[in-house]
Amino acid sequence: MSAPVTVPPKSHSSLFNTFARAPLEFERGEGAWVFTPSGEAYLDFSAGIAVNSLGHANPVLVAALAEQAGKIWHTSNLFRIPGQERLAERLADASFADRVFFANSGAEANECAIKTARRYHFVNGHPERFRIITVEGAFHGRTLATLAAGGQEKYLEGFGPKADGFDQVPFGDIEAVKAAITPETAAIMVEPIQGEGGVRSFPPGYFKEIRALCDAHGLLLVMDEVQTGVGRTGKLFAYEWTGVTPDIVSLAKGIGGGFPLGACLATEEAAKGMTPGTHGTTFGGNPLAMAVGNAVLDVVLADGFLDHVRETGLYLKQRLAALVDQHPTVFDGVRGEGLLVGLHAAKPVPEVVAALRAQHMLAAGAGDNVVRLLPPLTIGKAEVDAALEKLEAACRAFEPAPATHQA
Ligand SMILES: *Cc1c(COP(=O)(O)O)cnc(C)c1O
């Protein structure tokens, strides 16, 4: 008989230590609510960072995924995938685009956008035109190229030389864009509203001038709508608010409703260099993702859905404006469009997010000292009212209790 072997309990997680996670987990969700294993309910105004666009366990999406799961999951892009043809056609019909490439994430959608822009100039006989102008404070993803596009030092540090070909200009500064254009410039890449950067909108007229510069210099206009797209701002695409039409748009987050899905949309002209063999993906656009993506569009494109998002967004912003007036030591501004809303905090954002969590409400931090509210697009007044109650309670927790007077 040998002595029993006791395995010492691990004192650490086996995961890469890349995330500073909240000490919370959720077992199920329903609409805008998520539930811990012990049954505690949290109001989800982060929606997996703008991903659960139609709420948790949406019956339309659950049915679409379950039905497809019983048929076929994956075939690869060696074969035709009818769901891709259909989703691409619907996205094209509803937008500026003629062509769509499906990927699995926002960063991958942006990689495709960057490659498409460079390849366009290459097939036009200008391989030297590969540089892309991007905006400070942008977030385009965590691959080596999209990190270089975002240009944020804190994310680039320690990962070797920054990938060449990206020129950052200060936020909202048209003169800086003009000055950055050279004979090597291929495109300007910009979020219609900076999401991670702090729900920052550009000055009025900015995009008209950007489009004019693109036209004058033969540049492609790439809009990163990974966060703003698919109804988040109350229009199907946020570029519709800008009054200009892009040449290339990247999507992800909301289009899969929680299933990993990204897409790169382009005009026929902009996509003309992307011929067989120039780009690819194993998983991108697989039948499961396409079933869910088409179901998301069924809901978002239904009559009145985007009107509802705009109305709910307006109601939320009005109530938040009143909150800011009443609690200026906690919040000092409201910004954003539709249900992409930022509360500018007068306290450190991690403390505010933790105070909301203590009230059982989930929100996401962002740059520029902003707390982001990104609820499912399906919420109504009841969920906004519930959120305001929790926000009020969180504000009160920051404020000194009123002095009690004794007789
Ligand atoms: C989240 C985000 C990305 C990156 O998406 P991933 O799916 O994490 O790769 C890129 N651009 C914008 C604007 C985003 O908000």
TrEMBL record:
Localization: Cytoplasm
Q: Which GO terms describe its cellular component?
A: cytoplasm
Task: Name the CDD domains on file.
Answer: OAT_like (cd00610)
> Recorded GO terms, molecular function?
identical protein binding; N2-acetyl-L-ornithine:2-oxoglutarate 5-aminotransferase activity; pyridoxal phosphate binding
Give EC number(s), comma-separated.
Answer: 2.6.1.11
N6-(pyridoxal phosphate)lysine: modified positions: K253
**Binding residues for N(2)-acetyl-L-ornithine, per the UniProt record?**
R142, T281
Please give the catalytic activity noted in the UniProt record: N(2)-acetyl-L-ornithine + 2-oxoglutarate = N-acetyl-L-glutamate 5-semialdehyde + L-glutamate
Gene3D superfamilies the record matches:
Aspartate Aminotransferase, domain 1 (3.90.1150.10), Type I PLP-dependent aspartate aminotransferase-like (Major domain) (3.40.640.10)
Ordered alphabetically, the record's keywords are: Amino-acid biosynthesis, Aminotransferase, Arginine biosynthesis, Cytoplasm, Pyridoxal phosphate, Transferase
**Principal location class:** cytoplasm
Any GO BP: L-arginine biosynthetic process
Name its co-factor(s). pyridoxal 5'-phosphate
Q: How is the cofactor bound?
A: Binds 1 pyridoxal phosphate per subunit.
Pathway linked to the protein: Amino-acid biosynthesis; L-arginine biosynthesis; N(2)-acetyl-L-ornithine from L-glutamate: step 4/4
- Residues binding pyridoxal 5'-phosphate are G106, A107, F139, D224, E225, V226, Q227, T282
Q: What family is this protein classified in? A: Belongs to the class-III pyridoxal-phosphate-dependent aminotransferase family. ArgD subfamily.
Subunit structure, interactors included = Homodimer.
> Other comments?
May also have succinyldiaminopimelate aminotransferase activity, thus carrying out the corresponding step in lysine biosynthesis.
Q: What's the protein here called?
A: Acetylornithine aminotransferase
Encoding gene per record? argD
